[in-house]
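User: Teach me something about this protein's shape.
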Amino acid sequence: MSDQRNYQFPYQPYDIQIKLMNQLYDSFENGYISIVESPTGTGKSLSIICSLAKWMEDYKLNQLQKYTEEIDERKRQNQMNEKNDDWLATQLKQMTNNNEINDLNLKLEKLTKHIGYSKELKKRRTKIQQRKMNQQSIQVKRNSNDVDDDLDLEDLIIQFDEDVNLNDDDDEKNSDYFLPKIYYCSRTHSQLSQFINEFKKTRYYQHNPNSLMLIPLSSRVNYCINQQVNHFNNLNMINEKCNDLQQQKSKQKQKCQYKNQQKILEFGQEILAHVNDIEEIVTVAKQRQACPYYSARIAIPESEIVVMPYNILLHRSTRENFNIQLKDSIVIVDEAHNLLETISNVHSIQIYSRQLSSLLKYLSLYMTKYLNRFNSLNLKYLKQLIFVIRKLYQYLLEAKTNTCLQPLDLTIKLNIENINIHELLQFIERSRIASKLHMFSHQKSANDKNPSKIMKSTGTLEFLKKFSNNQTSDGNDKPKQIEESNDADDEFLQINTIHLIKDFLSSLINYNVDAKILIQIDNDNHSSYKYLLLSPSSHFKDILQECRSVILCGGTMKPFNDYINQLFRPLNINDNRTKFFSCNHVIDDDKLIAIGCTYGPNNIRLNYSFQNRNSTEIVKETGHLLVDIVKNIPKGIVIFFPSYDYQEFLLKRWSDEGIMKLFEQNQKRIFREPKKNSQVQLILNNYSKFIKSSTKNSAILFSVIGGKMSEGINFSDDLGRGIIVIGLPYANRNSIELMEKINHLNRIASNAGNEYYENLCMRAVNQSIGRAIRHQNDYATIILIDERYGKLSVNSKLSDWIRTRFRQPSNHSEVRLLIQKFFQNKQVKND
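Assistant: First, the predicted structure itself:
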């Protein structure tokens, strides 16, 4: 049956692509949870698109046929029952059948209406594209003073009542929610845009009259077009300001000009009629003067494919905010090699003592300023919030050493177990205290420049002063000014810290989750609490249990045991429901050679364990080895270090030893991975431009495993003829965080934590290596410098397509000969 499916692949598919599409289709159809490994360059994205689109198309046709046949069958049964002499039994059977017929007719009508809606939107597409907009986009001058100059008491005073719900997003809930929906998520917006652009290449977009309706979701940071809001460049501030504009009660103050319900509804239909990425939607939204954020959200119910970043899927409150319904749907997590770490990071929360101090200061001033204007309920919650934050801050100041506690133990130590945290969290959310405090601190900062009166001190301020005066520095008696921050920092801290506190308290009282609170004490007053999620399964539970099918796919998913131990086993997922698929690369065997370097040019054994890596002997040997290797590799060479610190250490030592000059003497231009994300594209462009400007140009790009250039970067063709990895990037096993994680996994399954530690390292290596081979005709050499890689390759720690091409020469001369021969053969073929 699977061999007869026509997936309408836009090109002649490889055999492994057909197998991958069959695996995905069967998973959708039978409700499997599948882990799929398909190396970069094997057409994974198009395979996913064609299989999910084919399945969705078949599903709708099958459901139409099924409902029609079942209705006809019930009608036939009614006719047969009329011949029955037992009148009472006949009536009962006919009533039951008629009820079932009515239910089936409703389902049939709903699906028929949905398909008709899709066809109608497709017809409108041409008309919509031809619409000319005469209205010019309104340019709002970015001036932060405009935001707060006209603040009145309605802006600043908490308007919160226990029986009032200020959330106005409930109008987006829609009873006509189309299921099963397909949710596709990936790590970055660029990867989501790539998926959407690949979708446009297929028949399902270009020639299908039913036109699968796809929408991309994102946060207000990417979707907000109101310059009065998006100039903050901070998610929490943007969210708060957006909600404030929607809830303005003063006649003098207008709501957001872009949240016009009619325009949003029309633009939501336009989003469904087209297939556009986030940037394209924002561009059109500015022309339509309609909010793209709410337009995309209002289009979710009728959509069939929803494209979104990880955090929307993995965070329950964010899912609920977007009204994402998982039941009976399909979830595809692409680039899932880092899913386990991503879940932990999304739910990891760190709060510093300086943030608590700043928040205490402004909360106290705020309460004092408007004490007589709060009702008793608001005052109660405000005092409780100050009390909890003060307890958190005081505990950090009094703690002497780093420690790790159970959340319940910390709650008891803080003496806050008698406070109803759930009510306090509701107060923080519904009172919009974060926004109020931000505006108050902004106003106070302006007033402080021209003070007209002195605000009386409070117990909290006296508490902060007392601890400040009790601290000393350098053994002197002078008071140390702790936790002081400037006004610019304060503005940022309050609005973010309130949200951090809310998330921290919410996690703190969730005792059903395997987690620890790491208390880190720092003499420089950067002490902190860090919430460590030990079991990602607790936050992936809804997805695995409610969805029809879940697909975890990536280029480097092996070994699969980590996903079994951390996701499936804790949730008792039936083995019959889990499927695993791994395919080799599409390149020929002669397109890649992976070489393990055990010895350097001077026959010094290379082992980058923590004890050896900084030795003068290893440092010099590594430098001379690289100089000798890169001589024989043309064009682009990317060298990965295990960490930023080790990269800095080696490059400095090589510079002192004159080794860096040897690279230049070999006509290799040097580029380095930048520290700022904003400079990554510039460095890549310069690196690419230099290599492509002449056939003789060659360059080295120094990068870090797990850094800015180890994922999502395309080093295809001449940009990555050589990929060199120095050492194994093992994390610090003695860190409290990693030790807690390893011990937790070892309790789940024997040796699971130790395996996780190694797999964490090797997935990062495999992902970095995969940057080079990007298509069938590409070729490169992979050089792994560390004697330990030989042992790992035997145990399949390297990706299969690399391990099968792995060689470990006995000396450096053989390494050199292998590289020379490899590129000589490629040069002959090219000529």
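Now, about its shape. Residues 589-830 form a domain with the Rossmann fold fold (CATH 3.40.50.300). Residues 245 and 253 are 8 Å apart (CA to CA). If you'd like, I can walk through any region in more detail.
User: That's plenty for now, thanks!
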